[in-house]
Design a protein that fits this description.
The complex is a heterodimer of chains A (about 180) and B (about 500). Chain A is about 60% helix and about 0% strand. Chain A is mainly alpha-helical and about 180 residues long. Chain A is flat and about 60 Å long. Helices cover about 70% and strands about 0% of the residues of chain B. In chain B, a hairpin with a 6-residue loop joins β1 and β2 (about 195-200). In chain B, α2 packs across α3 (about 45-55), α4 (about 65-90) crosses α5 and α9 packs antiparallel against α17 (about 395-410). The longest helix of chain B is centred in the N-terminal third of the chain and has 34 residues, at about 110-145. Classes of the chains: A mainly alpha (about 180), B mainly alpha (about 500).
Chain lengths: ~180, ~500
Amino acid sequence: MSAPGTPRALVADLAMPIALGGGGLFVVLQAQGIAAAGGYSPVGPSFFPTVIGALMLLIAPLLALGVWRAHAAHADAALQPPRIHALGWLLAAVAIGALGIERVGFVPAMTVAFVLAAQAFPRQSTTGSAATKSDATNTNGRSGRTLLADFAVAIPFALTTWFLFTVGLGLRLPAGWLSALPGA
Amino acid sequence: MDSSVTLTALHALANGLLVAIAPDNLLYAFLGCLLGTAVGVLPGVGPAVTLALLLPLTAKLEPTGAMIMFAGVYYGAMYGGSTTAILLNTPGESGSIVTSLEGNRMARAGRAGPALATAAIGSFVAGLLATAIVALLAPWVVEIALLFGPAEYFALLALAFVTVTVTLGKDRLKGAGALIAGIATGLVGIDGQTGQPRLAMGIPELFDGIEVTLIAMGLFAIGETLYAAVHEDEEESILQTGRVRMTADDWRRSWPAWLRGTAIGFPFGCIPAGGVEIPTFLSYAVEKRLSKNPEAFGHGAIEGVAGPEAANNAGVTAALVPMLALGLPVSATAAMMLAGFQQYGLQPGPLLFVTQPELVWGLIASLLVGNIVLLALNLPLVGLWVRLLAIPKRWLYAGIVVFAMLGTYGMRQSAFDLWLLLGAGLVGYGMRRSGWPLAPAVIGLILGPLAEGQLRRALAISQGQWSGLTASTISASLLGLALLIALWPILSEWFRPRQTAL
């Protein structure tokens, strides 16, 4: 979809300079809100953030210029088409972890997170071609089996990790649903 | 200077060794090596990430045991990184790029076993020698470090910032962007000197600042997973190791390369932000030049694995000198070790040797023991690590994601931190995609607050006079050197005939 050299790729490549510039603006503005501490030192709590924010604002346009030039120079750098939907699966995995860990406990949340993260990667295709596109809509037998296999790995993995770290190493991880089990 | 310093050091080291070989401590070393290798061998997981992922493991142990286990993890992680470089051609950190050049060639020629063996023994030899030199050198460096006041420290940190930007990564501007962004992240939280919250937007979870390990896991582990999922193809892996043992000829060609690699790697590691890229490439070049048949290079020459691998390990171990004596991490791996020390309540710096000598020498002794345990463990287990690589990628990376969340949550039991992890992961993906180096960001995050604190302390001492920063010869020359290195690209442009512009 977004082949390198296209406007979309340019926007994607500009994301980092823009983020840096935006961050710089945020840091500088926030720094102005920090009350200056009394005293003879010229360097209060707002000085360093102001300098750092200013540097970010200075470097960001230079980086953007570099991106612009690179795009102008070789608009057809060969990258393989990125599987951008993979980003969604992985972000969902971490989000589920963040939402679930204290609500349902470590093991259920991490089991689901594991399975979601696994969906970001292509299935081991034995036939070679088939399983590349439309992962979400594909509901035939093979993808069902893969999902089952993902759960079959995820559940013991989450359980073992939980036991190892809580019982073995004394780390506090929410038991959640596990606390309903006898003896847990 | 007098020899009593050296004698005291040796005495302290002997005491440390006695502590390290206690049965339970040996067990921790063994466990650390095992887990460090197991995680470090996973593709895309370099030594720095392995340390970050396994840091929570050691959280509940008492400091000595924790540090010994940590040393084991560290050596395991280093060795695991070389294993993936050799078998999969995916170096986890810049230090093993050169290893993969000849190592992967050897593996493709069915000689993965000897390649892994020469890497293991080479790392062992280099680690042993380098740790011994650290033990002898550190006390002297401490004596110099004790002359440092806030102004000198600030100058040294400024120099470290400049060298990090210049040496880590190919593009200086991107390195500077990563460093500054890291420093900015380090500003979040309560200001230590006035108690005022900064950049926290009133969110109470941010008042304590953002954990270095969280950022490291986000940038490295989550960022790498995102990148691999979006951009990478299935790569073919080499799963048969062939004969594991080195032949007599392999030994004959390896041992001089190990020693030369150590000699090249150590001095670079001592320089703030000397890095391991230059010495590993240098070692490769030296081995190629000295070889009787240089045409073998590029087709799996064992010297090309033995030398750089030793240089890498010597350099990383030597980085302990500036780290322990000055509190300056000079690589991402060293930065994670520093984060570990801070977790155990240790603030590295010259005073550490004075106030807690038994811990410092305990650490150095643990490194020696960890090194030996690693060799004993890994030569027989090479086959097992190879089989670990057969795990399907989807489960491997899913496991890494879960582990990163576990490590993040385990630090302070905060679900909020997992959202930060998500954000850091996205930033890490963006950085990787745009070719920004990751290590300067982590180093900026660690050193930024130190630099600000020293700057403000120095200015308080000089009663607000900026000239106080350059009042001493040490600080003036360090700042001058930093300025020179920073401006070098511009200066060299001026003094050289213009070449074809890109």
